[in-house]
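// run 5 | inverse folding | seed 20
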């Protein structure tokens, strides 16, 4: 539902144009910021905060899985470039079948484990959960532009409500397993979200709008995919609480970041200056 809603806001020509807005070298840097640095940071945080092996696996899968659609459609209202955010999401989805198997297999070797995630399985998941719904939303917008404008808010709200309910039911079902998790797990999730933002800053891209849009999008990790992979490859209930914890905390980090960003934009500064001048004159 969320991806269909996002697709209703997009134009194929603008989407392609935003993909070409960055050079190939910039996209290579974003591979580092999107897949490598968050995954590495999750391992470091797990070590520093003494997470259990299942908790480590859960937070690592969050770090390795980018591209969630949670706030993409609302970014334009907050001063970010929505088409750039959508382009990032499409690019991340295309990179997932290539990067996730390699990163997971490499990290598993550090713990004397052999874990190989089939790229074909990831291609199917990305196509079903992201690319096809996105294309459907774009087709609906093209066929019924007026109707799609009315349906978008409802579809977006329903998608977010459904995701929240599913996470709540998952936490309820885990029950006793939640009592055994590390108390500092929320701190780990908070630091991971901030680290994902900082990873994009470290790439030193030239366009400020691209940097800010990619930074908030990078914090928006794909918790749905992380839950799916944890159930398929980890087989431990304690791998889910870190994922659910990140799903609850990351939107708060992104909301605060968006408010700080809007406060720092030229338009906001201009409005603040105008208010000060008006107050002084009166």
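// decoded
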């Amino acid at each position: 539902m969320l991806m269909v809603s996002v697709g209703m806001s997009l134009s194929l020509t603008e989407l392609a144009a935003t993909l070409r807005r960055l050079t190939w070298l910039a996209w290579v840097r974003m591979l580092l910021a999107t897949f490598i640095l968050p995954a590495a940071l999750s391992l470091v945080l797990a070590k520093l905060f003494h997470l259990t092996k299942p908790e480590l696996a859960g937070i690592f899968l969050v770090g390795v899985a980018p591209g969630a659609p949670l706030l993409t459609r609302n970014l334009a209202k907050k001063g970010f470039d929505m088409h750039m955010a959508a382009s990032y999401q499409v690019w991340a989805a295309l990179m997932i079948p290539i990067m996730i198997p390699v990163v997971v297999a490499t990290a598993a070797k550090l713990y004397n484990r052999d874990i190989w995630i089939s790229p074909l399985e990831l291609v199917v998941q990305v196509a079903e959960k992201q690319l096809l719904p996105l294309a459907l939303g774009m087709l609906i917008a093209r066929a019924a532009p007026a109707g799609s404008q009315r349906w978008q808010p409802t579809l977006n709200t329903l998608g977010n409500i459904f995701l929240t309910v599913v996470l709540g039911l998952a936490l309820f079902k885990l029950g006793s397993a939640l009592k055994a998790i590390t108390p500092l797990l929320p701190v780990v999730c908070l630091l991971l979200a901030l680290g994902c933002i900082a990873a994009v800053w470290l790439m030193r891209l030239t366009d400020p709008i691209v940097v800010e849009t990619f930074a908030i999008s990078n914090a928006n990790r794909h918790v749905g995919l992380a839950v799916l992979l944890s159930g398929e490859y980890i087989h431990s209930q304690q791998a889910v609480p870190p994922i659910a914890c990140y799903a609850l905390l990351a939107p708060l980090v992104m909301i605060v970041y968006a408010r700080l960003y809007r406060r720092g934009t030229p338009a906001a500064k201009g409005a603040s200056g105008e208010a000060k001048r008006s107050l002084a004159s009166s």
